[in-house]
Design a protein that fits this description.
Four copies of one chain form a homotetramer.
Chain A (H helix, E strand, L loop, with lengths): L2 E2 L10 H10 L11 H14 L5 E5 L2 H12 L4 E6 L3 H4 L4 H4 L4 E4 L8 H10 L7 E8 L10 H14 L2 E5 L3 H7 L4 H7 L2 E5 L9 E5 L8 H7 L8 H11 L3 H22 L12 E7 H8 L2 E2 L1 E5 L3 E7 L6 H9 L3
Parallel strand pairs in A: 1-10, 3-4, 3-5, 5-6, 6-7
Antiparallel strand pairs in A: 2-8, 7-8, 9-12, 11-12
Helix pairs in contact in A: 1-11, 2-11, 6-7, 8-12, 12-14
């Protein structure tokens, strides 16, 4: 098989995770998240974000987390505001709509949503003939790998407060955003009503940690989990993994490695004169390559072609906790 | 902690599963079930059931499998027929209703559904003022640990055929049913339009293998999976586990061990004069114990109190692939 | 056509309603319930029930009213408690389940639900593996034509208060219940969190008046109406009709006429020695007749056969505001 | 009250409809659309469109018709393609999303959707990570009062056939479109898999006639109607009205009158030098007026302000079957 820069979930789990699964394997524990490791992981995460009142739940994947959380937070007539590139709008097969909620999409070039866009949406949804916008969905890092600055997050928070909206952050690649900036989980938690810290794309076999900061959104959440098939019998499988990821900041170390690999790629690509769809910030690069280059590289490396034009393609290169320097250099060596 | 007979998912995974996860860990693979192990596991399962046209999908848990499958198979006005003790009726937090479908419940004493009951339901649902019964839901083994005989399954199949109904089998503990009888997966597959083979309760970290035998129910199923948050990014995690479980009939060996432990318990309990709610057949026992006995045993062993009466309790004892003879004997030693 | 005792909606509307529709026809008015007649009707109804803070909405039919109200009042994991004979359980094609909610059914002989049954249901729904019972659904009069006494209603109210449940009353035939007792709309409103006063079965072309007494359930209700297709553009059509029905207690006069016709039938049937499924109280009779009698009467009169046994049938006879004495006597004259 | 050009449902019903309701009022009939008038109206409509195999159902309103039809026609993962101005996208409070389906919106200036836009949408929805586009939703006349030509409809039909899509036409103002062109109901029926002929906005008290031309979409439709609260007990109320509207082409005469009134307005407005948002074709005009003119006219006439800019407004003027020449002239007389 060709080496893959297709995504950040091409391998199994970080060895420390497998090791802990092994070590704890024969210990009996209660199911459904009541095991000691899940408890420890929840407490650890709450102490990291300095929000002891927060509720933490471990789920299996990003689409599942988004659909359970958003449908739990909204009443039937309430809608989500998100960019047209948001994962929930384009890559979740209408999961949010299946739970009954409209996504109001706004255009974006860099993957980000702005307060001005939110205000405009709210302004035109005025009565019972339209849905009521209620939840702002953003991804940090965005679907294009860009990162909201703390100032941008604060502005979104102020906008949501002023308009009575909830702010939800899809953190499938939140660690990569943190690793690329000086932002901390505690800061993210201050701005969001709820967010999730992704495990699947950062070294776990599977798993996302949903943090519900806003107390008003917490009651009965386990009912929502169970009803949507998101309450794992062996909750330990998720708890153990997040315990390992959170201990000693492993989640940050893994994300920084991925970012560093991407940065090496990005710098070399820039030097070679290639352009990017958006400026590279995290572990996803969107770079324009001539078709003949794509063809050549593709015989050795696997990656996603994002946009196909006549003479060039925008390809997406994704690095991960498992990406090796050798493969990065091998990829670069193929380029003109 | 007290030793637990609470359920069959109190430990991690069978060592062979962890070993294979370890061995394959650094190999890159495509996501969403397109990895080689998932492919092999699907092919192996299809060959075991001798239904090359079947479709196999791996999901994370039982409630998830039931809700995705049933909602995919039905049109909005169609309903499920199930016993009042069925898992979907009592222990899935209205997951099926959340997808829009009514469950028509019929009484049961032994956990089983009969053709006569189905016929009666169909007879009273005659026009558009009522839902249209369309799918018969049974569990093999049942929620009370009993097992449908092949004759009973054949009769249900004939009944469904005569009435234009689908037959769906919840196989959370299907291996235990097979292990307790001469029934084979191939036979189950001949009677069901769809069924699942449980992994979570039979030695996997998580995972259920849904088999859609009826070709008419197969198209676009992956869309349903994705929409309900049931398409795992690292599908390999499920594929690898089922590959291990299916190779050399490990799923049967594990279930037979669990059954054997339960049988030892059951025989000793009978000898001691205790009565059962239903005759023990698989790895779940429902035994009536005097309250003082329950109290005594409970200080050392954990289990579920199923029914509480004034002077006695019906307790549920569940054994698993991981239950040891020593613990079985220790439990029995505590009894009068 | 044979004269029909099949239901109470076999004719058009009471003449006073048609007259008012005619008189107001060319007056322009705002849509969606903002017309002056709807406003007047809402105010009149609120003054009749002496609950100025109540919210009143006019909808098109009973199933629609039930589904919009119940789905608006509940969160996704919450369930309804109702009898197994309740309209929502058997004659609404799974409308409540389509909105995502489970109906927990309890047995009944006379169509009524008791506090003891409710307590038992709540007692066994204890955690997130089951739905959370939240709304008690009763019909006044019941689907069998029986009537809850004020004492029974008060006991249900106390039970609901003690358990944190909502009490919702389906009043498709509420006027008949009031007409058959000394109960008033104001009393009903004191016991219910929400109820509806039926128009369709009491002389309107169409229409039900939903009264939301509990302020906590009122916000954003028009959004729910619109989203479910229940907000009529020409809301005047409903408002005018309810204005006519409520003015001078027309709703009561019509219901009393229907009850009186039923009473005449019931008394004569009793005298002739026929038995009833339940004691007749309102405008629906369920009477056991020998098959040869049914056959004979059926050639002249249309009605619903409720239960068919070998030698006898339980037939349902329904009278209405439009039933004439002559037809009642003609029916009786056919009986042995 | 000011005279209203706000919409085409400000009055009651055309006198002929009220008259027929009166004449038939005391005749007993079966409920739920099995009355003789509904039957006649269905047969008449089928003969008008020359599609004897079509299925006709009468519903109460436009949003209800759209949501029942679209949710009945689609599987859970299937989506609708519609313009960003379509009624389902902006004025139905997320009714379609509530039934679980995503609306894929495309931009429009004149309210129309083009085959090229449809092809583009289908091209980017390729696998199970996205919804599957399946139904094309258009309105004839459009939400801006424009009319698809027969050529445009034929092109949409060919596009849908080529791509395996259904074509659904919202005909809230279909009569106005027919009245403004040489198009016939039979032609519309040839292009659509399903469409509805609006009554509410064309002289009925309420009511829309849904025509399901495509036989594959017809089975069990009454179950969908009932489940969504859209099956009227006194179906006669809808049947009688459509019988009157369809006899002697009353629906066309009423729409032509509305169009004629709009045309008079449009011509005078043009002569006075005012511009239109889109060229006027049916009974809705969108005209740009200076703010001082709007202010002046508004004291005497009621209408909807569609777009508000600094110095001018785009106002919507709607005429109906009930609009009088006198009021049209009075409106024009106020203009500079």
């Amino acid at each position: 098989m060709r080496y893959s820069f297709r995504d950040d979930y091409s391998e199994g789990a970080h060895p420390a995770i497998l090791k802990r699964l092994q070590e704890t394997n024969t210990i009996q524990a209660l199911g459904y998240g009541y095991d000691p490791w899940s408890k420890q992981a929840r407490e650890l995460l709450k102490s990291i974000i300095k929000q002891p009142q927060a509720a933490v739940h471990f789920l299996c994947g990003g689409t599942q987390t988004n659909l359970v959380a958003i449908s739990a937070f909204l009443r039937p007539y309430e809608a989500v505001i998100a960019t047209q590139l948001s994962h929930i709008a384009v890559h979740e097969t209408g999961a949010i709509e299946y739970t009954g909620h409209r996504i109001i999409e706004v255009p974006t070039r860099d993957g980000k949503l702005t307060p001005a866009q939110i205000e405009k949406v709210v302004a035109v949804h005025r009565d019972e003939h339209s849905v009521r916008p209620r939840l702002v969905f953003i991804s940090q890092a965005t679907e294009l790998g860009t990162v909201y600055t703390l100032e941008e997050l604060a502005a979104l928070r102020r906008c949501c407060d002023a308009l009575g909206l909830l702010l939800y952050i899809d953190g499938a690649r939140l660690s990569n955003a943190l690793g690329a900036t000086q932002q901390t989980l505690a800061q993210i938690a201050r701005y969001a009503d709820a967010f999730y810290l992704g495990g699947t794309k950062n070294g776990a076999l599977l798993g996302e940690a949903l943090v519900i900061v806003n107390s008003a959104l917490q009651p009965y959440f386990r009912y929502h989990l169970k009803q949507k098939g998101a309450l794992l019998a062996k909750g330990r499988v998720l708890g153990i993994q997040f315990l390992v990821l959170l201990e000693n900041d492993l989640y940050l170390h893994l994300a920084r490695h991925a970012n560093k690999m991407a940065q090496r790629l990005a710098e070399a690509l820039k030097q070679k004169g290639f352009n990017f769809l958006v400026p590279p910030q995290t572990n996803q690069l969107f770079v324009w390559l001539p078709k003949e280059v794509v063809q050549k590289v593709r015989s050795v490396f696997d990656f996603h072609v994002w946009i196909e034009e006549k003479e060039r393609c925008c390809v997406r290169l994704v690095t991960s906790w498992a990406t090796t320097k050798e493969m990065v250099e091998a990829f670069l060596a193929l380029l003109p």
